[in-house]
Design brief:
single chain, about 140 residues, mainly alpha
Length: about 140
C-alpha cells in the first residue's frame, strides 16, 4: 500500500497571484524613486564625535584623580610642632640643658610660660587642714 502520492510541482496547476503589476512599471521605476528622494545630502554625524565628549570627560576625571591627592599632600604640612611631641622629646632627652632651652625661646614664649604663684595663706591653711597625710608632704 502506497499511502503517499508522488507530487511533482511541474505537473500541478499553478495558482495565480492576487497582485497585478501595471505594464512598463519597472521600466520607469528607478526614475520615479530618484525623483522622490530629497535633493540635499543628509548630514553625516560621526560616531567618533559623540565618543569624543566621553573621552574628554574620562580624561578630566583621571586628571582630577591625580591632582587632588597631590594638592592635599602639599597643603597639610604645618610649620608648628605638635605640643605633645615636643614635650615628649624634651622629657626624654636628658642631654638638653636649661640654657639650651632658654636659647630657643624668645621673649613672647617666656611671657606665656610665666605663672602667678601667689597663693594666699588662707588657701594653704585650708589645704593642709583638709589633708591627713601631712607627714608625706614633710618627708618628701
Amino acid at each position: 500500500m502506497d499511502i503517499m502520492k508522488t507530487f511533482k510541482l511541474a505537473n500541478e496547476p499553478k495558482i495565480k497571484s492576487g497582485f497585478i503589476i501595471p505594464e512598463s512599471y519597472f521600466d520607469h521605476f528607478s526614475e520615479t524613486v530618484m525623483q522622490q528622494l530629497p535633493n540635499e545630502d543628509p548630514k553625516v554625524i560621526s560616531l567618533f564625535l559623540s565618543r569624543k565628549s566621553w573621552i574628554y570627560a574620562a580624561a578630566a576625571l583621571i586628571g582630577l584623580g591625580l591632582i587632588i591627592p597631590i594638592y592635599n599632600g602639599f597643603g597639610n604640612h604645618s610649620s608648628e610642632i605638635d605640643e605633645v611631641i615636643l614635650e615628649n622629646y624634651i622629657a626624654n632627652k636628658s642631654d638638653i640643658s636649661d640654657t639650651d632651652l632658654a636659647s630657643l625661646l624668645d621673649e613672647e614664649d617666656i611671657q606665656k610660660m610665666s605663672i602667678d604663684l601667689s597663693i594666699e595663706d588662707k588657701s594653704i591653711e585650708n589645704e593642709l587642714s583638709a589633708n591627713t597625710n601631712l607627714e608625706q608632704y614633710i618627708i618628701n
